Amino acid sequence: MCLQLTYVVKSGLVGFPLHQLNTKILPTLSATIPTPFPLVFSAPIVSFLSFIFSSPLSLPSSPPIFSPFPSSLPIRKKMATAFSPSKFAAQPFPLNTTSQNNPLTIPTIASPFLGSTRKLIRLCSSSNLNLRRRSGTVVAVSDVVKENKSKSTPNLLITKEEGLELYEDMVLGRAFEDMCAQMYYRGKMFGFVHLYNGQEAVSTGFIKLLKQQDSVVSTYRDHVHALSKGVSARAVMSELFGKTTGCCRGQGGSMHMFSREHNVLGGFAFIGEGIPVATGAAFTSKYKREVLKEVDCDHVTLAFFGDGTCNNGQFFECLNMAALWKLPIVFVVENNLWAIGMSHLRATSDPQIYKKGPAFGMPGVHVDGMDVLKVREVAKEAIGRARRGEGPTLVECETYRFRGHSLADPDELRDPAEKAHYAARDPITALKKYLTENNLTSEADLKAIDKKIDEVVEEAVEFADESPVPPRSQLLENVFADPKGFGIGPDGRYRCEDPKFTEGTAQV
Amino acid sequence: MAAIFQGVGAAAALSSSPSNSFDSKKFVSSPLRKGASFAVVRSDGRVNLNPKGRRAQQLISNAVATKSDSAAASSSSKPGHELLLFEALQEGLEEEMERDLRVCVMGEDVGHYGGSYKVTKGLAKKFGDLRVLDTPIAENSFSGMGIGAAMTGLRPVVEGMNMGFLLLAFNQISNNCGMLHYTSGGQFTIPIVIRGPGGVGRQLGAEHSQRLESYFQSIPGIQMVACSTPYNAKGLMKAAIRSENPVILFEHVLLYNLKERIPDEDYICNLEEAEMVRPGEHVTILTYSRMRYHVMQAAKTLVNKGYDPEVIDIRSLKPFDLYTIGNSVKKTHRVLIVEECMRTGGIGASLIAAITENFNDYLDAPIMCLSSQDVPTPYAGTLEEVTVVQPAQIVTAVEQLCQ
Fold it and tell me: Transmembrane ranges (chain B) (predicted)?
């Protein structure tokens, strides 16, 4: 197996010395994974820990390493040398949060965060390949990934149809969110609206691999997850406008996108709240297979959540339960480095979230979340694992949100340089480039898709505008599935039998 | 203790008569041949055909007589079978699990250990480890897991080892359990049952003696019921499992060993109805769970003193059965509420508000409410006794009310 060390250095962002996590370390770390007690696992523990993908989509003429922080310079020198595992393991992340002359309180161990633009070691020039170092017991092999391909027969990751589908989905997400922002500022929607700009690769990369019966659980940043899963743009826009034709009849809002038809299980306002629900959906899938004897039930659940959630108890509790019972679930961390104004590095003792997977007995994978093809490759493996009944996977997608946390967030805390850095790695631009450079499609086709999506989004807004607002009578309709739950009134009848009740004017 | 069982006996006898002209029937008397199939007319007018009566046969031999009581003694000529409250719960749960494969149990130590109060004893052997799931100690997460499973088609019964532990699951119970049906626009139902023992026990300490009904009562979208006898325990358990709404079933630590004779046939207790324990004329005493027995004990004294209290076990803590309560108020014009939860913001407080709002004209005196002291339950036995309402206090209150 050819060992290709590729790591890319994030410029301008300090973080844990992830670059030290080179492939030499992987065997060491895999050896240290403890056997879970009791030994319920019959399969060998999979320990493919970190996939460091080369970045075929990165701009070849990337800007030089950008380092506003002088402390990052020594790290760059270190990068070229081999790193000892002990150094890696022994280095605790300092809690130093004194800010000197920059508003971002960055700890002074300046280490680049994985996934920047600069490639240090180029692979074979057929840069479409993903190579990764595998430890001994990797279970799944992505059928698209091939090693040691020659130059003359590049192996593309996607077909033209797939490429266009991915492109369309990401453009839909982007256009929709931009329209949301416009509508919000025009006063068509209120409250908290959290936009997904910049993170489209994660949603598209994962959700486009799912079947209709697979479930998706998200957070408050859920518009694009719902769209990727198949909920129509009209339904989502109406929901945002609070109209009765919305996917949740206007009762949920931006943070509560549900769809029974497309198995979108929410939309949760509190972070971490959705993860147990996702675990429950995965439990149902396993239950259906084993107790209800629906032998071909292989429904997978994806739980999307952010870096802030990874410090929440529900995250860890669910990692434990999912690994314990080998539930068909994939935990997708959308690590965009910021939880409103709290930098991930300031909030987390060990910012490498993917490492928390092996601690619970599941593989932890890190992937560049600005690259839809890489995400898709990892997603294929993780979802494949879950479908085969091998258990959960923790996937950390390093991504970034171009806008603030919500439309109410002035977004003053993040460094403009950091934003510019990631803006240059826009997943849509990157995919566009990939598609055109590899002659999968033409600019014209892509422009046609752009236009089509614009029309879809415009139409969605029109539809939402014209939809009726919920009538008063809708107020009490969905409080209980069985409205007898409102009880028996003084007259001896169930309250729900009272005609005034359905008008929403009765007292309860 | 004999008084309590007498109360149970009286309750069992009285609960068989419909308390109001309203159309509800808890069960229909029917031929008692085991294995007979017959109809149960439920309060919503639907008729349920009992598929099999075979399980009734197994459980008679299980009834362990922990306390012999001549009044409620098992005489073989009486119909039904005798068992303890926890066995009644187990029976209800087992019957529902047999009836519907989607019913599953999740909780700490429910499987191999059989439940810390033996409510799920033997179920794991019978139904397997996945249907009776031993969870790690993560209430918030496994409650959420139960909710996710309910949304996707199962009917889980989540057990809190002690109701107090469900405080850890408050996030999931309030935000998800209560709300998801609404925020999803009615797309997802959550037919979950959350149950567990609560209440003040025998010197269990403050944290194990909590009464969460007052905390949960404001959550929109859930129903709360409290069982007090083996009969209504089994009935409410079954009704809760069959209900499409999320239901929280409150049991009491001290009531698990109550013995009663319950019918062999399939029956449920309506989730929204109250139970008439003892009809009377002078005063309405509203109570639930363990306090029912203190009230019945006080009732004996009161009867001797010449009072005729009407005792209603409200059973449905949310929503209140204002019909039964209202009829009673209209008859007696005096209300005493005896509850075990805290004074501040408790069930009694809500009940006072509801009665005053609806039946103020029928009251001859202000409503009296006896609740536990607003005190973390002390360990010391003497102090613990004082935090909870005792029969003597009930007698005094009635005398005061009826002056």
Answer: none
Q: How far is B304 from chain A (nearest CA, A)?
A: 32
Between helices A313-325 and B139-151, what is the axis angle to 10°? 60
Contact A281 B152 (CB under 8 A): yes
Q: What is the pLDDT of residue A129?
A: 37
Count other Cβ atoms within 10 Å, centred on residue A258.
27
Nearest CB neighbour to A482, from listed B141, B244, B326: B244
Q: Do the chains contact at B144 and A287, CB–CB below 8 Å?
A: no
Enter the ipTM. Answer: 0.80
What gap in Å lies between CA B270 and CA B281, rounded to an integer? Answer: 25
Which residues of B fall within a CB distance of 8 Å from A240? none
User: Smallest Cβ distance to B145: which of A248, A279, A478?
Assistant: A279
The answer to whether domain B81-263 and domain B275-402 are alike in fold is yes
The per-residue pLDDT for range A458-500, each reduced to its tens digit, is: 999 999 999 999 998 888 888 999 999 999 999 889 988 887 7
Per-domain residue ranges for chain B? 81-263, 275-402
Tell me the per-residue pLDDT of B6-55, one tens digit each, with 9 for 90 and over.
Answer: 434 444 433 433 333 333 344 333 344 444 444 444 444 444 444 444 44
| Whole-number CA gyration radius for chain A | 24
Residue of A480, A495, A497, A498 to mutate, interface with B, max B Cβ within 10 Å: A480
Domain B275-402 grouped into CATH 3.40.50.920: yes
Which chain B residues are Cβ-neighbours of A482 within 8 angstroms?
243-245
Q: How many CA within 13 A on the CB side of residue A261?
A: 9
pTM: 0.77
* Cα separation, A201 vs A432, whole angstroms: 12
* A422 half-sphere exposure, CB direction, 13 A CA radius: 25
Active site residues of B: 139, 208
Look at the block and give the residue holding tokens 């009969």: B231
Token code pair at residue A48: 């493919």
Task: Count how many pairs of residues, chain A against chain B, have C-beta atoms within 8 Å.
Answer: 199
Residues in Cβ contact with B43 at an 8 Å cutoff, skipping those fewer than 6 apart: B22, B23, B24, B25, B270, B273
- Per-residue pLDDT of B194-204, as tens digits, reads 999 999 999 99
Chain B nearest CA to A18, separation (Å): 31
Tokens of B47: 């008729």
**d(C-alpha B401, C-alpha B396), whole Å:** 9
Of A248, A273, A487, the CB nearest to B171: A273
**Given an 8 Å threshold on Cβ–Cβ distance, is B142 in contact with A321?**
yes
Contact assignment for A280 to B148 by CB distance below 8 Å: yes
Domains and CATH numbers, chain A: 160-470 (3.40.50.970)
Does A480 contact B185 at a Cβ distance shorter than 8 Å? no
Question: What does the pLDDT look like over A121-153, one tens digit per residue?
Answer: 333 333 333 434 333 333 344 433 443 333 444
Q: Which of A320, A395, A276 is nearest to A37 (CA)?
A: A320
Measured CA distances, A352 to A10, A308, A378, B53 (Å) = 14, 12, 17, 58
Q: Determine the Cα–Cα distance for residues A325 and A315; give it in Å rounded to an integer.
A: 16
Gap between the Cα atoms of A253 and A317, Å rounded: 28
CATH fold, domain B81-263, is Rossmann fold (3.40.50)
CA–CA min distance B153, chain A (Å)? 7
Choose among A260, A268, A291: nearest Cβ to B130: A291
CB A278 within 8 A of CB A265: yes
d(CA A203, CA A423): 18
Residue among B225, B212, B119, B134 nearest B173 (CA):
B212
CB contact under 8 A, B145 and A276: yes
- Type of residue numbered B25: K
* Closest approach of A480 to chain B, Cα-based (Å): 6
